[in-house]
Amino acid sequence: MSRNIFLIGFMGAGKSTIARTLCDLYEMKLVEMDEQIEAQEGRSISRIFSESGEAYFRSLETELLEDLEQMTNMVVSCGGGAAMREENIAIMRKSGSVIYLSAEPETIYDRVKNAHTRPLLEGHMDIAYIEELMAERHPKYQNAADFAVKTDGRNTGDICKEIIEKTRVTAKNVDTVSGHTN
Q: Is 149 helix (H, G, I), strand (E, B) or coil?
């Protein structure tokens, strides 16, 4: 497989875990967008948000996606807000499959309730707020994705198998339509 896989979805949906597993199983390169931005900036996402603002952080996401555009055989774990920008979606679609990992608000809460690395949830760590923010983002995630995969109560192996099966079908269909062969 040479096309890339971009995992999008709400924080705590399982993007990082699934990305690592896909890379291990299929010998792909891993890109953790948030970690890469933190390393590039020399400060945490929380500090970037508090010192420079969300708009600045979102521009860093776009720049990173542009830098990755020519690379292949990668699994990119996108930040939860990366798919909120149309330009990011266009960049991802050019070089790979976009998969929306979803989970119920209660599952998200259970996964992130003890984390203090989620600037948008600081001071709002409750199911009602998570549900509200997820409802705002869901249409964007849905429209950006080639397909969605639910992660609630599933093991990583099953989720990865579903992603690989669906991306192969998607890649085959795209290649057939464009006249290219694998």
A: strand
- Contact of 32 with 21, CB cutoff 8 Å: no
| Best CA proximity match to 85, nearest among 108, 109, 112, 54 | 54
Quickly tell me which residue has 């948000």 as its tokens.
49
pLDDT at residue 174, rounded to an integer: 39
**Residue 33 pLDDT exceeds 70:** yes
Residue 4's SS3 state is strand
pLDDT at 124: 64
Which residue in this structure is represented by tokens 């995969």?
149
Q: What is the pLDDT of residues 3-12, one digit of tens each?
A: 899 999 998 8
Handedness of CA 46, 48, 50, 53 (dihedral sign): negative
Q: How far apart are CA 135 and CA 43, in angstroms?
A: 30
What are the beta bridge partners of residue 79?
none
Asked if residue 179 has pLDDT above 60, the reply is no
**What is the DSSP secondary-structure string of 74-87?**
EEEE--TTGGGSHH
User: Do residues 118 and 48 make contact, with C-beta atoms less than 8 angstroms apart?
Assistant: no
Largest CA distance in the chain: 52
For residue 44, what are its two tokens?
């945490």
Phi, psi of 28 (to 5 degrees): -110, 165
Nearest to 37 by CA among 69, 61, 8, 15: 61
pTM of the predicted structure, to 2 decimals: 0.85
Q: What is the mean pLDDT of residues 153-168?
A: 92
